[in-house]
Specification:
By secondary structure, the chain is α+β, with helices and mostly antiparallel strands. About 45% of the residues lie in helices and about 10% in strands. The strands form six sheets. A seven-stranded mixed beta sheet has the order 1-12-3-7-2-4-6. The chain starts with a strand and ends with a strand.
């Protein structure tokens, strides 16, 4: 093992460059995707300018024709990792085992962009700050928004034809107004420091595992073990990332197949992820839901997943389809917990015929999601429910509900649970999806969620005030946020109803007025769909409390047969 040093500018220049020294730096297939956000990137640049050390990187030098990919230069959300892979070859190359997030951040900031924006530096920043605060200000900006004193940072770092003094003087000339001595000196200091930390000093240290001169010492299995040990001690990688790295070493198409599955699962606005898929696979194969690296080292699990991928992924997709078709949950907004689906996936995988014929699966989904039965760390509960399925050879709701209650988890749905739903909460989307599922009505989606709106607008309710007991002045809001936001004052709207020239702050007396509708039948259907009391007097602001009470009754009548009845009767 050798320790080597490079300047930041030089190592960034070596990324994705086959002609560079050592064959350039690349990412092996075992590496997870880039996960740092803008704040983490700019903090890294601030740390470097403050002369904080960068941890040593770990690199593997090899000629083996292993699957690897390029670093991302122009980062975009949702980019496909499979597009970054390069053809395998037997030329020398340097594979980054530890330090991807730091190198990728430097590459984006100095050579690329983040969601179309480039990294700019406030050339007048650098005043004293506490260790936890930002001292040197960096931001990703559009060129049109970058005005003095924001300077594109790559122009400082990659300037090769001018001395530091000339670079500083050119920047000073860009100022729209004359600068004082203090600001002028600060610019000279910042340019000098940037050039020192990013260009002149060899601030990047990496340990090189030489698999070319020592091929027997650093084979692929050895490298995976090194990778796991380097990353499992902290929080750099989750256990699912480590498990996937082990899987990927034996399965070249792992990334592509996972990407295809997740694209399929997430159509319509869900957020299934790789962690969920791996945990589901472990459960289906009888390995238990808990993430343990040893499960992938048993010599069997990896092969079972690879060879059985078609059936495993089909079971996951079937449960996702059940979710949409039988419960009408349409997006991530209505999914408090994805883990509640794993017992169903196990059931579908082992008992496909019984799964297709079972009439109570939708009820299970609704009840456990609404009550949050699988919140927290549910691995033990998942295994217990799976054991019940194994013992009964069926998805027996009474037995499974008993298992859930035995784990001290609540399954009770009372009127309070329903009526305490509020605007902005995660579960209100679940209730609304259930509420509107029997109608020929498709809620509009904004950011993958139904558009929820207040019936009595907040602005209107805030005009109602009570006298201050101390001063007698009318300055106490009668209706607090929890009263304004309660489910009884909320409804779903279509896009054209909630957009420009839509409902906005229209009071219910106008919004529900018969004149807005083509016929009496259409008017009645609209009121019935939204569970609006038909007494028009209740639509007036001074009858808000009466409207709420009347609508609560309509809501409870809507949900009572849907949620409060189990195979054994009413709870």
């Amino acid at each position: 093992m050798q320790n080597k040093k490079l300047s930041i500018r030089r190592i960034v220049s070596y990324l994705n460059d086959q002609e560079a020294e050592g064959g350039g730096f690349w990412l092996p297939n075992i590496q997870r995707p880039f996960v740092w956000n803008e704040d983490q990137i700019v903090k890294l640049f601030d740390s470097i300018m403050r002369e904080y050390p960068i941890s040593t990187l770990l690199v593997w030098k090899t000629r083996l024709p292993i699957k690897h990919r390029r670093f991302v230069d122009n980062f975009q959300y949702g980019f496909k990792l499979s597009l970054m892979f390069v053809p395998e070859h037997e030329r020398p190359k340097l594979m980054v085992l530890d330090g991807q997030q730091r190198l990728q951040s430097l590459f984006i900031g100095l050579r690329g962009s983040y969601v179309g924006k480039e990294l700019y530096f406030d050339i007048l920043s650098g005043d004293g700050a506490s260790p936890e605060d930002i001292r040197y200000r960096f931001e990703f900006k559009d060129k049109k928004d970058a005005v003095w004193p924001w300077i594109r940072f790559k122009d400082i770092v990659f300037q090769t034809s001018k001395l530091d003094l000339q670079i500083a003087q050119d920047l000073i000339k860009l100022s729209p107004e004359s600068l004082g001595t203090e600001d002028t000196n600060k610019i000279h200091i910042n340019v000098a420091r940037a050039r020192q930390e990013f260009v002149n000093d060899d601030n990047i240290t990496y340990q090189e595992l030489d698999g070319i001169d020592n091929p027997d010492t650093y084979q692929i299995d050895d490298i995976v073990e090194v990778f796991i040990r380097a990353n499992s001690g902290g929080t750099k990688l989750g256990k699912s990332d480590l498990l996937f790295s082990l899987l990927a070493t034996s399965w070249d198409d792992a990334d592509g197949e996972m990407e295809i599955l997740l694209e399929d699962l997430n159509k319509g606005g869900f957020e299934f992820d790789r962690d969920f898929v791996l945990k589901s696979c472990l459960t289906m194969l009888g390995k238990g839901a808990r993430y343990e690296v040893k499960k992938f080292r048993d010599g069997k699990t990896k092969d079972e997943i690879i060879n059985g991928w078609a059936d495993l992924s089909a079971a996951i997709k079937s449960v996702r389809d059940l979710l949409v078709s039988r419960t009408y949950i349409r997006s991530d907004k209505a999914m408090p917990s994805y883990l509640a689906l794993i017992p169903l996936i196990y059931f579908r995988y082992h008992y496909p015929k019984k799964f297709s014929e079972h009439s109570g699966l939708a009820e299970y989904i609704l009840r456990v999601l609404i009550t949050g039965a699988f919140s927290g760390n549910p691995d033990y509960l998942i295994d217990s429910v799976v054991k019940s399925i194994q013992e009964t050879n069926d998805f027996n709701l009474s037995e499974i509900y008993g298992v859930i209650r035995a784990d001290n988890r609540n399954l009770e749905i009372s009127s309070d649970v329903i009526l305490n739903q509020a605007y902005g909460s995660r579960t209100i989307h679940l209730f609304f999806n259930l509420w509107y599922r029997d109608f020929d009505y498709t809620p509009a989606f904004n950011g993958n969620g139904p558009q929820v709106d207040h019936i009595f607008p907040q602005s209107l309710l805030k005009t109602v005030k009570d006298p201050n007991p101390e001063t007698g002045r009318l300055n106490i809001l009668r209706y607090r946020a929890e009263q304004r936001d309660q489910i009884a004052n909320c409804m779903l709207l279509k896009a054209d109803e909630n957009g420009f020239a839509g409902k906005t702050d229209t009071p219910p007396s106008s919004w529900f007025d018969r004149a807005r509708f083509k016929s009496d039948d259409e008017h009645k259907e609209y009121l019935a769909m939204h569970l609006i009391p038909s007494d028009t007097a209740l639509w007036q602001l001074d009858r808000f409390d009466d409207f709420i009470n009347a609508r609560k009754e309509l809501i409870l009548n809507k949900f009572r047969p849907m949620l409060l009845v189990t195979p054994g009767g009413t709870i």
